[in-house]
Amino acid sequence: MKKRAAIAIAVAVAAGVEFTVPSAALAQASEGLLYSVKFLCGLQTKIPTAPPNEPPVKPGNYATAVNVHNFHNGSVVIDKKVVIAAPEGAPPGPMTKPVRDVLSPDQAIEVDCAEIVRLFGDVRLPPFIKGFVEIVSPQRVELSVVGVYTAKECHKFLPPTAAPGPACTDFGALSLQVVPYRDAFTLP
Fold this sequence. Notes:
- By secondary structure, the chain is mainly beta.
- It has one domain (31-183).
- It is built from three helices and ten strands; from the N terminus they run ααβββββαβββββ.
- It is globular, with a radius of gyration of 22 Å.
- The two termini are 37 Å apart.
């Protein structure tokens, strides 16, 4: 078997194939597997400007739930963090400090809009927020991570003194996205 591998490498070198070996420093700087999940939470009310200068989403009520499942037979450590995405040219959006959780075998957690807001603590947030929930598996254990998105279109909004909530019509929409992982590492 070693002889075959040596012959294959010799043929590749003779053919001019270049080999790139990752640096040991980069390999040691790995922070684990990263799942970066887009979220939309809250109420986008009016469109303040005319096209093409529009808000990031049309008027409606938006919710996200990020489901994280440990499908292994051992416990897994995860770190979660939330980052608000700011428009280009604006100051960077706030981000939470990482929070560590331990998922038991076959356990799942959900990070929904209420948890996202809770993770920001005393930071004042607008009625509509968007950004990323980041889940890191520092042990480099693969997890099942799914983003669940619901949206309800709203055409007419009640005044603030009326009953709570917008006058939304129709059922709305539901979407699921399986989130792949990336190798998270510290840049040199």
